[in-house]
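Note to self: user wants both folds in one dump. Writing first protein now.
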Amino acid sequence: MAKGAKRKTKPTEDSKPDSEPTATATATASSQENENQITKAPPKPKRVKASKPQSDPEYFEDKRNLEDLWVETFPVGTEWDQLDSLYDIKWNFSNLENAFEEGGLLSGKKVYLFGCTEPQLVMHKGENKVICIPVVVAVVSPFPPSDKIGINSVQREAEEIIPMKQMKMDWVPYIPLEDRDSQVERLKTEIFILRCTQRRSALKHLKLDRLKKYEYCLPYFYQPFKEDEFEQSTEVPIIYPVEPKPVFCEFDWELDELEEFTDKLIEAEELSADQKDAFKEFVKEKVREAKKANREAREARKKAIAEMSEEAKAAFDAMRFYKFYPVQSTDAPDVSSVKSPFINRYYGKAHEVL
C-alpha cells in the first residue's frame, strides 16, 4: 500500500444508520407488541337492548255514578251465609240508576231505599238453580217511612216491632261516586239508604237468638189510612207445645168449629186424644188475644189519623213504592218471569214493578 493512502475500516455496530434496526431490537419490539396484544383484553361488544313489543293500551270502563247503589243498600232479612253468593253474580241495576237521571221516575224526589232478597228457581249457566235475587224497594216520601223493624217468622210465637237501631240499622245518605271526594256535610242528597253496621266478624260472638233475628227482619211500615190485612184476618196461627212434637196449624174463628177442628187433628194423629180439652182451651186463649190485638190496632189507627197534621196526611197520601229487579244481562240470570209486586206484609204491594 502506498504511503499516505487511506485504509478502509470495518464499520461498527454504532456506526450503522438508524434506519436499519438490528435483529435483536426488531425481535424485542415484536415480542412486546405480542405481549400487549395478549394482555390487553379486546373491547366488549355493546349489548343491544331488546325492544319491548308495543302492547295495546288498556282501557278501563268508567264507573257509573250510581253503580254501587244497590250494593250499598243492605238486603234486610237475608241470611248472613248467603250474602257472599249474592254478590258473586254481576247483577245490573241500571234501571234503578236511570230512574234518578234527569226526567227519570225518581229524579228530583226524596227517596228512601231498602234491599231484600227473593230465592227463586231460575235458569243460570244452562241449569235451573235456586238463586237469591236481590231486589231494591224505593219509597218516595218527604220523611223516613219508618224508624222500626218488624221481626217475625213461623217459628216465633209473636212478632216484634222494635227500633231499627236495636239491630244496628238506620237510614243514611247515599253519596254518588263523583261526590265522594267532597265534604259530605256540604252535600245535599235526596237519596237515603237503609244501612246495617253489624260487623260480620262479630257474628260468632252473638247469641243464636240474636243472630236469627237478623234473618227474620222485615222493613216496617205503618199506613194509618189503610186497614192492615191482619186487622181483618180471622185466622190465628197455633203452635201448641206438646211432646213428642208441637202441633202447628191455623184456626179460623169464623169458618172453623173448634170441636170438629180438634177431632180432625186427633184423627190425623197430630194430636193425642188425652190432649183434646187442653188444646181447645189453648186455641180459645189465642183467639181472645188475636181479637184484642185487632181491636187495639184499629183504635190506634183511628187515633193516629185524628192527631195527624194535614201536611202529614198529604205526605202519606202521596207516598209511592217502587220495586226494582235487576235487568237482564249476559252475566246474570233472567228474572223477568219471577217478578212480583208484593214487598212484605207491612208494605203490601208496590205501586210499580221495574
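First done. Writing the second protein, which came from a different request thread.
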Amino acid sequence: METEKKTHTAAEQMTDRDLSEQIKKVTKESHVRAENTELMLSFQRGKVTLPQYKLLLCSLYEIYQALEEELDRNSDHPSVAPIYFPAELARLKSIEKDLEYFYGQDWREKIVIPAATKRYSHRLRQIGKENPEFLLAHAYTRYLGDLSGGQVLGRIAQKSMDLKNGDGLSFFAFPGVSSPNLFKQLYRSRMNSVELTEEERNGVLEEAVRAFEFNIQVFEDLQKMLTVSDNTLQSSMTQSKPVKANTLHMSGNGIYTSSLFRMVLGLFVALATVSVGMYAL
C-alpha cells in the first residue's frame, strides 16, 4: 500500500514537471477569458462566411510565415530540434494554396494583415533570433491546437461555406499525420524531454501566456476597428442612402464592414481558444 502511494506521488511530481502540463496550467486563466466571450459563443453556432474565412487565412499566413521560418532557421537548436516536424506539421504551403484558391494567383497583392497580427509576427521573429527556446511555447500552442480544435473549425468552415472536395481547406488537412491523438502524445513527449534551466523554463511559460495574449490583442484590435467602422457606418447612413449590411467595403489596405468584423472577431477568439485550450484533448 505504501509502495503504491509513493509510486502515485512520484507520477504526480513527474506530471507537474512536464512542460506541456505547466503550459496548460499557466494559460488556464487566459483560456477562460477568451472562451467566455459573447463572440466566441456566437462562433460556436457555426456562422462563418467566405469573407471572414479569407481574412482569417490572411492572418494565419502572416503568423505561420514567421513561426515556420524561425523554426527552420533554428531547427538544430537543442530546444527546437525535438519538436521540429516540418513534414507533418508545416502549414504555410497549405495556407498559400488556400489563399490562391480564394484570391487568385496575385493573392499576395490582395491580402490584408491586421496590426495586432503584425505585432505577433514581429514577436516570433524576435525570439527566433534572441531566445529560440521560446519558440516551444508558440509551436506547441499553434500546432496542437490545429490538430485538435482546428479540425472542428475545418468542419464548420466547410459546412458554412459549402466548400466541395476540400477546396480552400488545405490548412486543416494533415496528410502526414495518420493519427492526430498519437502524434500529439509523441509531440508532448518530445517537448517534455527538452532540457531547460529553471530560468529558461520560466521564460517558456511566460511566453506561452504571451502567445495567448497576442491572440486576445488581435481580438481587441479588431474590436477597435469594429467600433470605428460602426461609427463611420452610422454617420454615413444619416447623410446618404442606406448601406446593405453584408456589403464588403474595401479602401486602400483596409477592409471595413460592420457585420463582417463582428464575425471575424468571433473567428479570432475561437482561434485563440482552439490554439491553447484544446490541446488537452
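Dump finished. Worth passing along: The chain has one domain: 19-277.
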